[in-house]
Amino acid sequence: MAHFLTDSPKDIEYAGSLLRGGELVAIPTETVYGLAANAFNEEAVRRIFLVKGRPFIDPLIVHVLSLEQAETIADTSNPSVKKLAEKFCPGPLTMVLPKKDCVPGIVTAGGSTVAIRMPRHPIARKIIESAGVPLAAPSANPFGYVSPTTAQHVQDSLGDKLEYIVDGGECDCGIESTVVFVGEKIEIFRLGATTREEISACISIPVGIAKGVLEATEERQLSPGMLKKHYSPNAQLVLLDDAKSEFPALFDKFHGEEGFTKKVAFVSQKRLGNFAESKNFFWLSESGDPADVARSLFSLLRKLDSSGYEKIFVEKSSNDGIGAAINDRLSRAAAKR
Ligand code: TXA
Ligand code: MG
């Protein structure tokens, strides 16, 4: 079991000194919890991969406080960097930029670019400040499983491999940052909590989704968050385009005289009055607000997993704004193993 630390000045200082000294600490951010290490300490970064069971070919995001700190590890001279940073940082946007030599190859999977993010969560910021070094941090979950949005989620799936988790409550966004490549072209490598529409408006040109993102495989990938199968619960997920009309037939199919014949769950985007009283029916938000859906998505998937559901039918979100990222996570979670 890992120890929980709080946001008290004493604990923050302790977390910072652990990180500086090469220990791993799970930390809250506004998106999901991260498993952090001093980005300059190769041994500590190696342990991140081992704890998560993550392949070494999958590069990590480095978390910094400011654009000035980003400049110490990456080339930030592309004019779009400043524009994007002014609009979205600190916040759930990660920029892939040319790396500087001081960043160890293990962080970037040997590549010439480094992913940089400035989290806005006050505890994450205090911890980076206290550590005094940039922090490499992937999501704090076993590789391929659902990302954690509470300290308890981290404890549940990595607690036996970790010593410290800073508890910052529930994450505000609930899904990961948007990863955007900022070079000659600007392209989205991973859909996330900052929308494609917002990014396009900021740089005044439509931003595309990098080719391959939607059909990446283990062998060929630009950014492993694009793996077809990722973010997956143990239960089998089935996505529904038109849940309201499909739920009644599915209900009949799995419901016999004695109740449900299988551990099956039905999940809608918003509360559906006619089903709300039924056991096995869940909703991701009261009103269907996509920000609420994003906040509760991973939490509900984990809850259904731990309640032993074998099959989960989920209503898709609308495909605009943050809905695109919600559907991205849902379709990867539903992909065949
Ligand atoms: O919201 C987030 O981004 C969270 C919090 C903890 O900051 N972090 C996170 O990290 O989701 P991770 O490792 O689970 O996902 C990072 C994604 C992966 O898809 C990885 O392949 C991609 O970013 N990535 C990292 N460095 C990259 C690079 N240099 N080039 C392309 N993709 C990169
Ligand atoms: Mg992850």
Short description:
This protein is of the alpha/beta class. It has helices spanning 9-20, 42-52, 67-71, 79-88, 122-131, 151-158, 196-203, 243-254, 290-306, 322-334; strands at 3-5, 25-27, 34-38, 61-63, 93-98, 113-117, 135-136, 164-166, 178-182, 186-190, 208-209, 236-240, 255-256, 259-260, 264-270, 281-285, 311-315. The two termini are 29 Å apart.
Description:
- This protein is of the alpha/beta class and 337 residues long.
- It has 10 helices and 17 strands.
- The protein has helices at residues 9-20, 42-52, 67-71, 79-88, 122-131, 151-158, 196-203, 243-254, 290-306, 322-334; strands at residues 3-5, 25-27, 34-38, 61-63, 93-98, 113-117, 135-136, 164-166, 178-182, 186-190, 208-209, 236-240, 255-256, 259-260, 264-270, 281-285, 311-315.
- The protein has a 9-stranded mixed β-sheet, sandwiched between helices. The chain has a 4-stranded parallel β-sheet with strand order 12-17-15-16, with helices on both faces. Strands 1-8 form a two-stranded parallel ribbon.
- Helix 1 (9-20) packs across helix 5 and helix 9 (290-306) runs parallel beside helix 10 (322-334).
- The radius of gyration is 20 Å and the shape is globular.
- Residues 216-220 have low confidence and may be disordered.
- Threonylcarbamoyladenylate binds next to strand 5, strand 6 and strand 10.
